Amino acid sequence: MLVGVDEELLPIGQFARLGRLSVKQLRHYDELGLLPPAYVDAVTGYRYYRASQARVALSIGLLRSLDVPLAVVGEVLSGGARALEGVREELEAELARRRRTLASLERVMAQGLPSAPVRVVEEPAVRVAVVAERAAGSEDVGRATSLAVSRLVGLVGGGPVRLIGLFPVDFGEVFDVEAAAVLGEGESGGGAQVRVLPGGRFACATHVGPYDQISLTAHAVLAWCAERRCSVRGPMREVYVSDPAVTSPELLVTHLMICLEES
Length: 263
Description:
Elements: E1 10-11, H1 12-19, H2 23-32, E2 39-40, E3 47-49, H3 54-65, H4 70-77, H5 84-111, E4 119-123, E5 126-135, H6 141-156, E6 163-167, E7 175-182, E8 193-197, E9 200-208, H7 214-227, E10 231-240, E11 253-261
Antiparallel strand pairs: 1-3, 2-3, 4-9, 5-7, 5-8, 6-7, 6-10, 9-11, 10-11
């Protein structure tokens, strides 16, 4: 035993076994201030712990097994148990995303790879009110779209609204999604940005089913364009035909449209 070291102190290897953590983890948690040793030898740098610290070590291991980020672990250890509410929300969102992914996979298993009929249509230019919302990756599109639609309806409400979703053809790490409402002659945007969506020739396919499975039909449209070597010009449009407030998700009708450029 080193001089000056309490006989009740445990070397890091022994404490690691007691707290069911690795030596590497203990060193890392010391650096983060989550679990500092009871004593550090000034000469050797060896770390020593008390057996009473095992509860903290085991608590850290438990929280990490529940996918709690280290920053939140520190708050919980300090008595801020409510910090776990944010972790729960993130896990619920991830679970919902996984369920949507599973539903899409089951649809592919039942019906095969997407091959929705694609047609070419001519669309006139339309005047629209637009609200944009920033999405943090493809997994955030649903949230951003819902928020944009909600804000837009609040601005131009007062009757039936013809809605169009506008999405980039290629998703980046961060990008804007837009909700557009078609305006009649003389109608204002109610505070939303007003602009004209250009007309032209569009590849179009109709999606019937939940909004979170629209990507399957979008795949079919892009595959159709690629097979014919058609250059495409974004954004991709989702023209919402059905009212989700009164229509079952399985019966929602949405037209997917992408403007074609001459190659």
